[in-house]
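Supplementary material to the annual report.
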Amino acid sequence: SQASRREAQTAASAELESEVEPWSLLQPLDGEDRAGLFPPLFKVLYDGQGGAPRLQPDSRDLRYMKRLYKAYATKEGIPKSNRSHVSNTIRLFTPYIQRKRVPADPVTGTAPSVDLLFNLDRVTAVEHLLKSVLLYTFNNSVSFPSAVKCGYSLVMNEPESSRKARPPAPRSFTFKPQFEFRKKYTWVEVDVTTLLQPLVASDKRSIHMSVNVTCVNDQLQGPSALDSPLKLPLLVPPSLLLYLNDTSAQAYHRWDSLHYKRRPSQAPGQERGLSARPMEEEAAKGVRSSRHRHRR
Amino acid sequence: GQAAVSSELKKPLVPASFNLSEYFKQFLFPQNECELHDFRLSFSQLKWDNWIVAPQRYNPRYCKGDCPRAVGHRYGSPVHTVVQNVICEKQLDSSVPRPSCVPAKYSPLSVLTIEPDGSIAYKEYEDMIATKCTCR
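Predicted assembly:
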């Protein structure tokens, strides 16, 4: 009868519950969201604590992420719809181990070489890499001319890469610090997506790299530029910023709504925002559009 | 037709014994009908602010109230809701409850959290703020 069947069911479920931790029954069955909101939320429901003790993040990194949050979300915490890229997860990792093999060379303007180790355990299998950036932080006590040209070499110290012994590929990028002088910190993002893509995609949980940076005054031309290098004692080791796309059901998938708004002239790849704009442009664009609206 | 209309007009609109205020009450907006309610909480209240850095305040909202008998398009309720209402009112099965007032639409929420290893994560979660209620 219905009653006896129900009794059998409750007995069976009671037996099952006694075997596993009760709160694990609330986990998503496929365990996708190991590093999301659910585990801590369930833990609070079950034992009322506010989550496990956490290591304190680097204060500069926290300041950067708070600024990023304001650029990407409203005060109520709702993701802004006018963003160009679709990553629904952005992670900032502070390097663990920093060993200086080559001291700074004031004559050539080379900053101290550093060894960096990033632990990417928090990146889950459902978070796919869209872009990776080395984030340099300056404070405004560094007196910069309007533009500085820096070359850097980034060497991956993974066993495989060392076995291949490929010479580091020198790259150059240009700083534009003046637009940040009013604030206490200045940030520069150096795109290393092509270098890190294979490593992160291959589920490598730790990335070990060494970085050498040499900067010269961009405004001086010819040999005089070389013989007036910049002193960069305050070049702190960069943090690693990963723009990821979380494909789990709990994550917000913006491209659904983008599909409806796609302009016919844009190629699909373009709209996915693989070339995400620096944060300042995003915020400025937001300001510009609101001013425009205001004038009308 | 003149005669028919004039005889209609002669009839009284409201019988003398009818309570007018009771009559009009049925046209008023019902007081506790199914609707969206605010519920603002701050993560510091939950002592979660050591790992949830932003947003400072979170308003998940919730749905509460009675579901009207004749649930029409106003709630976007499926036809099934009307069927469930009939089963309940005709008491075909006492275990079948009336339709409930539940969220029908959500909006996402951006969360900035500190991970146990000290890294910082910005994540966008689906369905974290109720934006519309329905009866079903």
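The two ends of chain A are 72 Å apart (CA to CA).
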